[in-house]
From TrEMBL, chain A:
Residues 20-251 form the ABC transporter domain. Belongs to the ABC transporter superfamily. Keywords: ATP-binding, Nucleotide-binding, Transport. Transmembrane segments: none annotated. This is NitT/TauT family transport system ATP-binding protein. InterPro entries: AAA+_ATPase (IPR003593), ABC_transporter-like_ATP-bd (IPR003439), ABC_transporter-like_CS (IPR017871), ABC_transporter_ATP-bind (IPR050166), P-loop_NTPase (IPR027417).
From TrEMBL, chain B:
SUPFAM superfamilies: MetI-like. This is NitT/TauT family transport system permease protein. Its main location: membrane. The chain crosses the membrane at residues 28-55, 89-109, 121-143, 149-171, 201-225, 245-266. GO terms for biological process: transmembrane transport. It comes from Loktanella fryxellensis. GO terms for cellular component: plasma membrane.
């Protein structure tokens, strides 16, 4: 794997700083005694971009919600920055398939929402400059004072990126963030996401069901298998950064995609 | 409604979109047109004696009485006092209904206790014909305005309870998950997410309540006498003074419209983001 970023370099002990450490994680939904996850172990390191790919229903969202502290696991432990995750935390930024902007708040107030909830209105007002800078970062500089009804789907998702970043989280959890967008917008947003992550040395965990998207963005890919949801493979992606869309057509990219497709196996397509 | 049709044009068939006649005329002309038609039919059936004058007065008689009642109200005479009495009944009833309805709606929509223990009773009471409680309110509160206010509020409370509770359920799973993920407390989720999301529902309930509170106030005045418009209507009807009944009803409906459109105005003001699809943008 290419290591041009000094922050990704091993520390004195020869280990990169682990952000997330998850071991022995399982989840059984009590409602229908459904085993959604079983024996999941994974580690995310500082500055790493990791994707998890698997067929729909294999437990990806469940994994992400447990990592985010939105629901407790049945067994196992989730450590973030050395502290167990016991509920939602300000050092976790989340993004979902739907932007979910509040229609009665302007774009900038939507972005400030996490600050408003955790620290109050005054703190949110004080963070306005930061929100404006984030809007510039995603190319929405002129749209701070409009209401979400005037934003396109792609613009709304960009605003959701800003809302995720406003509290400067240590880790980004992304659940199929662009899967509701059309393909042109999705490619564009993926490149934006890469740029933002590289710029901020963000640690990111992306749930996706697009192999190409996972390969394009990730340093590593976890391949999940269903029934019960478990991690089957951990694949390093040895492509140089920054990645660009032209790489999709290279032979190496094709080989990696092929490898992952066979790793997913026939189970992914039924 | 646009209507399209094919036409012969220089030897080739072209498809032309045409605006229908009704799309080209302004609303007020359409309304005026229908009004003229209805009054015309009314005039014909009453002046030809097709319908007896006791059942239906002529438009002319009714118009004269409307002017008479209007003049009485303008001069601040007894009909004005009656209108004030009824207006106050409606206003107090509406405010009490909003207070109680909203509180019960919060209890039912936001707490498990309310949903499990309170809601079944509310549903049971709601299915009863509520005007049947009128004699009770009169027995408890007397023939004054209080018994009418109570009946009006009683009728108008339920739509507000139902609408508030439904509004609190309206926030989507995505929105709730967002609020949990950004560490919102229960109060924050209630006031910053669930209530704003529920406002369109709540206003729909208020509009239904605005109609109900009028019905309750007038029913109370029919059954319990007093100084209001309802009493005047009953009196006029018992004297077979149908033009008077008609004109009193007209002024009463102006009161109802005023209340209804106050709610509509408040909705436009407070739910500016939700351009709810209403027929013709009314209400
Ligand atoms: N709240 C829930 N209660 C019961 N079962 C659930 C719940 N949420 C998800 N599941 C089930 O758990 C499995 C994994 O779901 P999910 O994590 O959403 O998968 P993915 O995101 O990979 O599509 C699915 O079979 C789904 O039906
Ligand atoms: Mg999912």
């Amino acid at each position: 794997m290419q290591m041009t970023n000094p922050h990704l370099a091993p520390d004195a002990t020869g280990q990169r700083h682990p952000v997330y450490e998850i071991s022995g994680l399982s989840k059984t939904y009590a409602r229908n005694s459904l085993v959604a996850l079983k024996g999941v172990d994974l580690t995310l390191h500082k500055g790493e971009f990791v994707s998890v790919i698997g067929s729909s229903g294999c437990g990806k969202s469940t994994l992400l919600k447990i990592m985010a502290g939105l629901m407790p696991p049945t067994t196992g432990r989730v450590m973030l920055e050395g502290k167990p995750v016991m509920g939602p935390r300000s050092d976790i930024g989340m993004m979902f398939q739907h932007a979910t902007l509040l229609p009665w708040k302007t774009t900038i107030d939507n972005i400030l929402l996490p600050i408003e909830m955790r620290e109050g209105r005054q703190a949110a007002r004080n963070a306005t400059d930061r929100a404006t800078a984030l809007l510039e970062l995603v190319g929405l500089g002129k749209f701070g004072n409009v209401y979400p009804a005037e934003l396109s789907g792609g613009m709304a998702q960009r605003a959701a990126i800003c809302r995720m970043l406003i509290a400067e989280p240590a880790v980004l959890l992304l659940d199929e963030p662009f899967s509701a967008l059309d393909e042109l917008n999705r490619d564009f947003m993926n490149m934006e996401l890469q740029r933002i992550c590289l710029e901020r040395e963000a640690t990111a965990f992306l749930v996706t069901h697009s192999i190409a998207e996972a390969v394009l963005l990730s340093d590593r890919i976890y391949v999940m298998k269903p029934r019960p949801g478990r991690i089957d493979q951990n694949i390093k992606i040895d492509l140089p950064r920054p990645r660009n869309l032209d790489m999709i057509n290279t032979e190496k990219f094709g080989q990696i995609v092929h490898h992952i497709r066979s790793a997913l196996g026939s189970e992914a397509f039924n | 409604m646009a209507q399209s049709q094919t036409e012969q044009h220089h030897g080739e068939t072209v498809w032309i979109e045409r605006e229908a006649f009704i799309d080209r005329i302004p609303r007020w002309i359409a309304m005026l047109g229908l009004f003229i038609i209805i009054v015309g039919i009314w005039h014909v059936v009453t002046t030809t004696g097709f319908v007896s004058a006791i059942i239906l007065p002529t438009p002319g008689e009714t118009w004269n009485d409307i002017l008479f009642v209007g003049a009485n109200i303008m001069r601040g005479e007894y009909m004005f006092e009656a209108l004030v009495t009824t207006s106050l009944t409606v206003l107090y009833g509406f405010l009490i209904a909003i207070g109680i309805g909203f509180s019960l709606g919060l209890l039912v929509g936001e707490t498990k206790f309310g949903e499990k223990a309170v809601l079944p009773y509310l549903v049971a009471i709601d299915t009863m014909p509520k005007v049947a409680f009128a004699p009770l309110f009169i027995a408890w509160l007397g023939f004054d305005i209080a018994s009418k206010v109570a009946l009006a509020a009683f009728i108008a409370t339920f739509p507000i309870v139902v609408a508030t509770a439904a509004g609190l359920y309206a926030a989507s799973e995505n929105e709730r998950m967002l609020f949990r993920s950004i560490g919102a407390t229960r109060w924050q989720t209630l006031f910053r997410l669930k209530l704003p999301t529920g406002l369109p529902y709540i206003f729909t309930g208020l509009k239904i309540a605005a109609v109900g509170v009028m019905a309750g106030a007038i029913t109370g005045e029919f059954l319990g006498g007093g100084q209001g418009f309802g009493a005047l209507i009953r009196q006029a009807a018992s004297q077979l003074n149908t033009p008077r009944v008609f004109s009193l009803i007209l002024y009463l409906s102006l009161l109802g419209l005023a209340l209804y459109f106050t709610v509509v105005w408040a909705q436009r003001r407070f739910v500016f983001w939700n351009k709810a699809e209403t027929p013709g943008g009314i209400g």
